[in-house]
Structures are given as C-alpha cells and as structure tokens.
C-alpha cells in the first residue's frame, strides 16, 4: 500500500523535533521541517511521482539527500536516520513539542530532571506541582502548561481537505476492486468540501455477496477495527483518521447519500419540509404512509419536498433551503471559469521555479494570464525585490511577453503593508505595474482596531489593488490575527479594491464564511494560489471550494474575467 505524503511529512517533522532536542544544527533542523511542509502540501503523491520516474530532487526545496530519504520511506516505510536518532532520544518527546510554549530546551529539561517522556508524564508532573520547582519554569509556567496539556488532550483533530483527499483516494481505489461493488462515494464534510474534515463517511451500493466490508476492515492501513457489521463498519487508519463505511440498497442510495452528506442543519431543514407534506424522510428513503415514494437519487429527494437540487457545498443551513424553494440558488463558480492566477512567486524571491517555467505551466493549465507577485524587500524574505530588481523583472516580463501570443504575463508585486499603513515601495515604481497584491506579513498582534485601521489606510493608496491572504491564518498552525473583516470588506468596496481568496491548501484565506460576507456586501474577490512552484498552481480548486461554499458565482470572482475587462477593474478611481 503506498505511503502517503502526510506520513513522510510526519517522519521529517519528528526527525526535526528529535534533532532539535538533541541540539543539532539549526539549519539542518530547518531543512527537515521545510521538507515536511513541502511534502505535506504537495498536490501529488510522492509514491506516484517515484513510480512515474520523476526526479524528486527537482521539487522545489528538496535536495538530493532529501529525495533519497523520501524514496527510502516510500520503498521501506522507514527512515533509517530517524530510527537511529530514536535510539538516543525518546520518540515521545516529539509529542511534547506540540504543546504550545514547550520548545526543545524546555522539553530537554523536563526529560533530564523529571524523567518526563510523554504527555501523560507531563500532565502528572504538572498536577503534582513538580514542574514549578525546576529552574526556569515557576508556578505560572506550570499552570500554563497544565492548561495547555488539557486543551491539547481534548482538542478535536481535524484534517485539511488536501491531506484527507490523499488518504481517501487510495482507500477508494482499493475498495473499487471489491467483488460485487456498484457505486462508491465519499459523503460527509468531505463531499461538502469543508476546509477540514473530522472523519470520512464512505457510502457504497453492492451486490449481496459483495466482499467490500471484509476488504474494508482488511485494508492494510487499518490499525483498529472499531465496528464491524454487515451494513456498517468503522475503522481507524494509520493516519489517525476514522472512516465509516456503509452499504446501502440501491433503492435508498439517493436518500442515504443525502443523509450522510449532511450537514445536520441542512438535513433537519429538508426533513421539516417533508413533514409539512406528510412525509417521513430518513436515510432509507422518502416515505408516505410507510410506502417509499423516493430515494434512488438525491434529486428525487429534493423534488419530493419541492426543492431544486442543492450542490453539496451549499448544504450548511445558511439559507440554501429558502433559496432552493425560490429557485434562487447561486450558479456557483467552477474551475472552468478561471482564466488566470493573480498571485505567484518565482526564483526572483522565494519561489522555486523561474518566470518562464511558471508561465509555461500556467499556459498548460489553459490560462489566459498569469501575474507574478514576488515579494517586496521589507520584512518578508531576505531576497525581496527593491526598486532596481523590480525594474529588472518588469523588463524580463516585457521580453517574455514579446515571445508569447497565447498567454499574457502581468506585472505585479506582493507588497508588505507596513505598520503605519504605508506600502514599502514608492508609487512612482508601483505605477509601472499592472496591479499589486498587498499583505500583512508582520505585526500580527495589534489590536483589532489598530490592525483594521492599518489595512484601511493602506487601501487608501490608489496603487493598492488586492489584499492578500486577508486574515493571515494557517490551518492548524496559526490563528488569524485580530481584524474587523466586515469593515475591511466594506472599505474595499468603497475604494474599488479587492480581497484575495488565497487557495493554498493550508491557508484558504478568505474562508467560506468570509466569502459569503464579501458576496453579501457586493465585493469581488480574486482566487489566487500564491504558488511558490509549478505544482502549487493546482491549489486553485481548493480556493474554489471556499468560494463555492461562500455562494460565489463567476461574476463575483475577478480572475474569471477576460484580460481587457480585468485591466479596467484594476484602474482605480
Ligand atoms: P465532520 O466529520 O466532523 O467533518 O462532519 P460531517 O458533516 O461529515 O459529520 P459526521 O461525520 O458526524 O456525519 C456525517 C453526516 O451524517 C452529517 O453531515 C449529517 C449526517 N448526520 C449525522 N448525525 C446526524 C443526526 O443526528 N441527524 C441528522 N439529521 N443527520 C446526521
Ligand atoms: Ca464526516
Ligand atoms: Ca462520520
Ligand atoms: Zn505570496
């Protein structure tokens, strides 16, 4: 069974933790952490890449040594260096690093002085007030640790859609080979394209003598069978993900799909409508006086209660039932509508592929335009563009455009919004660009009032076009900064600028709720990948998921426009 990207990433993360606790060189530790992130966020499976004969060292940020290590993990399931380090440093110490506020130094001190190896050890020690006696800890720190351990233990673990897809796709491929299988579909939050999923809900129809249930519990990624029945089983996979599998009769397929797709709030709404008509609706069908009158398809279920078909992304109980009743559902934006990508990086700053290669890749994806938004020089990256280098890039783009006739390269930059709300390059240079992306990359901890003012002030500059990753959150890693997003949305409408839906699978920023808020306020967005390499261009569909969940249509998204119209929008007042 192929090794998943997240497993390779976990190995590298663990290795980085243990090496850091051991006191290894910072650069070495950093290299493994970066590799973990690169692999985890790759839209393609490392195992597939190897099978296709690709050279992994050509992936941005993966050198020859790392490429070799990835290959070893894929082939043997193990990373020998990690095994070696594990002999010296207890593996569980790596878990302690997941507790906020515990760095390598503290973990080491806890281990050497109090024999704390596991989260449980840590909890016991905190409860027995052992930690406060340690040098450099104190009562307050002990209290904070105790609280964080409790939160950590109770924290709901949700998986990003990108990682969930990787896990789900190979399982579905495997199940498809079962004897007597007919339909197979993943329902639940996965089908609704939520940014993260709790567990996977797989639904199948199959012949009576089908082997699908047995095959499911026999899957070699299963580490625990929680429930094993004829029509329903639940397992836990190596990744920690729980999976439910349900076998339903064909006559109930549509009803079951509807029921298990959810959300619960949406289901309740539909059931209520059914009750008004005297129907009983459950996962087996729509019933009138115990006679099944619908259930084979989802469409049938909706029709019976007087609704048109509701796309899964809208099934959140946010007004979609009312809209479906009035035939007023949005015509959701699709990947086909997208004509270009407005936020991409190259080797000029922290991207991993050249201007030319990125443009070629955009053309392969059928785009009419691509914009390069390498970083300005302020705080973000060491090699950010100053005026001179930006002018050089503008020249290079002019020359490239001369040679191309089926795609246009747009000139842009990702500017830092400085603390006082100014932008970090003078307007005289910015005017030479087609548009700008402006982002907050530092001073995340301002009050909501100050942060909001800072951003609005930046938007006052007519050179400000698109506000990049507007809340700064990174899923499971960094909370959004404090900001009044509604004020920002309204401010953007007033000034004629736009907000970004950053499609990077671990950002998704704006998220679905904010997309809806933007739409309700008449603000258009740019769905952009923030690609740092060619394969990152494929993040586009993850941004689309959020926009669709936020009810957005093609007309709400500026990069669905042909270039001429887009250029007009870029001209502010
Ligand atoms: P998740 O797994 O936390 O990301 O979210 P879901 O939406 O996949 O929720 P899950 O796995 O608990 O259940 C799958 C679907 O089954 C859910 O979206 C709706 C349906 N469902 C579950 N429990 C109930 C219930 O008590 N009432 C109704 N009407 N539907 C339910
Ligand atoms: Ca689920
Ligand atoms: Ca479930
Ligand atoms: Zn960027």
Automatic annotation (TrEMBL):
Cell compartments where the protein resides: Cytoplasm
Needed cofactors: Mg(2+)
Ranges for domain Polymerase/histidinol phosphatase N-terminal: 340-419
Originating species: Kineobactrum sediminis
Pfam families, per the entry: DNA_pol_B_palm, DNA_pol_B_thumb, HHH_5, HHH_8, PHP
Record key words, sorted: DNA damage, DNA repair, DNA replication, DNA synthesis, DNA-directed DNA polymerase, Exonuclease, Hydrolase, Methylation, Nuclease, Nucleotidyltransferase, Sodium, Transferase, Ubl conjugation
Main localisation: cytoplasm
Protein name as annotated: DNA polymerase beta
Record InterPro entries: DNA-dir_DNA_pol_X, DNA_pol_B_palm_palm, DNA_pol_lamdba_lyase_dom_sf, DNA_Pol_thumb_sf, DNA_pol_X_beta-like, HHH_MUS81, Hlx-hairpin-Hlx_DNA-bd_motif, NT_sf
Main function: Repair polymerase that plays a key role in base-excision repair. During this process, the damaged base is excised by specific DNA glycosylases, the DNA backbone is nicked at the abasic site by an apurinic/apyrimidic (AP) endonuclease, and POLB removes 5'-deoxyribose-phosphate from the preincised AP site acting as a 5'-deoxyribose-phosphate lyase (5'-dRP lyase); through its DNA polymerase activity, it adds one nucleotide to the 3' end of the arising single-nucleotide gap.
GO-annotated molecular function: class I DNA-(apurinic or apyrimidinic site) endonuclease activity; DNA binding; DNA-directed DNA polymerase activity; exonuclease activity; phosphoric ester hydrolase activity; zinc ion binding
GO cellular component: cytosol
Enzymatic reactions: a 5'-end 2'-deoxyribose-2'-deoxyribonucleotide-DNA = (2E,4S)-4-hydroxypenten-2-al-5-phosphate + a 5'-end 5'-phospho-2'-deoxyribonucleoside-DNA + H(+); 2'-deoxyribonucleotide-(2'-deoxyribose 5'-phosphate)-2'-deoxyribonucleotide-DNA = a 3'-end 2'-deoxyribonucleotide-(2,3-dehydro-2,3-deoxyribose 5'-phosphate)-DNA + a 5'-end 5'-phospho-2'-deoxyribonucleoside-DNA + H(+); DNA(n) + a 2'-deoxyribonucleoside 5'-triphosphate = DNA(n+1) + diphosphate
Keyword Magnesium: no
CDD domains in the record: NT_POLXc, PHP_PolX
Family annotation (SMART domains): HhH1, POLIIIAc, POLXc
Span of domain Helix-hairpin-helix DNA-binding motif class: 54-73, 94-113, 129-148
Domain DNA-directed DNA polymerase X residue range list: 3-316
GO biological process: DNA repair
Domain of life: Bacteria
EC number: 2.7.7.7, 4.2.99.18
């Amino acid at each position: 069974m192929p090794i998943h990207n997240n497993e390779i990433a976990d190995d590298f993360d663990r290795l980085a933790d243990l090496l850091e606790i051991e006191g290894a060189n910072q650069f070495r530790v950093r290299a493994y952490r970066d590799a973990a992130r690169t692999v985890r966020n790759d839209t393609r499976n490392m195992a597939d890449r190897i099978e296709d004969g690709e050279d992994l060292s050509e992936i941005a940020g993966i050198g020859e040594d790392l490429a070799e290590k990835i290959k070893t993990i894929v082939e043997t399931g193990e990373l020998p260096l990690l095994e070696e380090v594990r002999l010296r440093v207890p593996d569980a110490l790596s878990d302690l690093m997941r507790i906020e506020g515990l760095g390598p130094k503290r973990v080491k001190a806890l281990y050497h002085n109090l024999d704390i190896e596991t989260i449980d050890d840590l909890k016991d020690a905190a409860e027995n007030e052992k930690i406060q006696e340690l040098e450099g800890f104190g009562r307050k720190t002990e209290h904070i640790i105790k609280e964080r351990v409790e939160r950590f233990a109770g924290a709901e673990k949700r998986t990003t859609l990108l990682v969930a897809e990787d896990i789900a796709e190979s399982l579905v491929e495997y199940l498809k080979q079962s004897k007597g299988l007919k339909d197979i579909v993943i329902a639940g939050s996965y089908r609704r394209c939520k940014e993260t999923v709790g567990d996977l809900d797989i639904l199948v129809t199959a012949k009576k003598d089908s082997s699908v249930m047995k095959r499911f519990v026999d899957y070699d990624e299963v580490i625990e069978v929680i429930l094993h029945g004829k029509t329903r089983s639940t397992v836990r996979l190596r990744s920690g993900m729980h999976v439910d599998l349900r076998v339903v009769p064909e006559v109930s397929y549509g009803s079951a799909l509807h029921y298990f797709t959810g959300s619960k709030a949406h289901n309740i709404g539909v059931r209520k409508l059914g009750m008004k008509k005297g129907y009983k609706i459950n996962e087996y069908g729509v019933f009138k006086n115990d006679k099944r009158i619908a259930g084979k398809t989802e469409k049938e279920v909706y029709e019976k209660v007087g609704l048109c078909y509701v796309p899964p992304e809208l099934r959140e109980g946010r007004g979609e039932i009312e809209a479906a009743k009035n035939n007023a559902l949005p015509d959701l934006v699709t990947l086909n509508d997208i004509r270009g990508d407005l936020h991409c990086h190259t080797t000029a700053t922290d991207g991993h592929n050249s201007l030319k290669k990125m443009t070629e890749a955009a053309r392969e994806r059928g785009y009419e335009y691509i914009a390069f938004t390498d970083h300005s020089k302020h705080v973000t990256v060491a090699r950010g563009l100053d005026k001179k280098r930006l002018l050089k890039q503008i020249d290079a783009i002019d020359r490239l455009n001369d040679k191309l006739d089926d795609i246009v390269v747009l000139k842009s930059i990702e500017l830092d919004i400085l603390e006082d709300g100014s932008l970090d390059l003078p307007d005289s240079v910015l005017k030479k660009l087609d548009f700008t992306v402006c982002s907050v990359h530092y001073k995340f901890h301002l009050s909501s009032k100050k942060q909001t003012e800072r951003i609005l002030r930046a938007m006052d500059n007519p050179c400000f076009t698109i506000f990049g990753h507007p809340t700064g959150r990174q899923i499971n890693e960094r909370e959004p900064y404090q900001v009044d997003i509604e004020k920002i949305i309204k401010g953007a409408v007033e000034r004629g600028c736009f907000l970004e839906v950053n499609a990077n699978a671990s950002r998704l920023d704006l998220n679905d709720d904010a997309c809806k808020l933007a739409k309700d306020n008449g603000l258009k967005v740019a769905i952009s990948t923030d690609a740092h390499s060619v394969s990152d261009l494929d993040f586009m569909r993850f941004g689309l998921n959020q926009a669709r969940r936020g009810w957005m249509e093609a007309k709400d998204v500026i990069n669905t426009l042909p270039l001429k119209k887009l250029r007009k929008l870029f001209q502010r007042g």
